[in-house]
Amino acid sequence: MEFMESDVLIIGSGGAALRAAIEAKETFPDSRVTILTKGELGKCGVTAISCSDRMAFHATLPYTEPGGRTIGNLMLRISFRSAGLFPTRTWRRSWPGIRRSLRIPGPAWVPFAKTREGRADQFITDGSEYPRACYTGPRTANHIEEALVRRVSSMGIRIVEHCMACDLLLEEGKVIGAIGVDTREGLDPSPGSLKIFLSKAVILATGGAGEIFAVHVYPPGMTGDGYAMAYRAGAELVNMEFIQIGPASVKTQLNCSGASCGPIRDS
Prior knowledge:
FAD/NAD(P)-binding domain, alpha/beta
């Protein structure tokens, strides 16, 4: 059995996980940040693998419509109110941190499509009132993952691959780490394949549970492990069924957005 200690343990290796790792390391340069992934970094999960006709990165930029100094607050308010997430006073307190997390990677990171003026080209996606979606094409998420992997690989962040977090460690009701098992050991892992991760902070970024559906186009591994671990640790889960759903073809491997379809009408 192997023991590893960290200041921040991030479970998952998709866009959210890598972005969290970068933020943690940039905020606390001397901290020990560990990313735990049950596959290979940059080659597993939705961000690294999935493609869609309208894949995009939503960002509120200085020139995003309708413009003005309060554009960021407006976009945040629209998003939160449409989801019924937070009262006004809450998102006002949260805005500075959220604004940092939404910053768009620069041209050296991701080759976003540009307008003739050299600005990021943005379009309207499902549920949006103004164009916010930046894109590179159907592989936008893949390009973002590649850029994040390059950044993470240059920051001294520890990567533990082929290791699945199977449960969180608790002490007096607080999460202090996680138990991992080598995914290459099969269904009957040996005691030597177990790893104990102790950490001051744990971030779950394991993705959704697309594989609960009998027919789906999610990549392998989207089994909702984070949901189960959080629930067993005492977390309250809300709206976890709200994962991305849209028309897709298993036969052709084509995944479309809702915008590509007309409105559904009663017959």
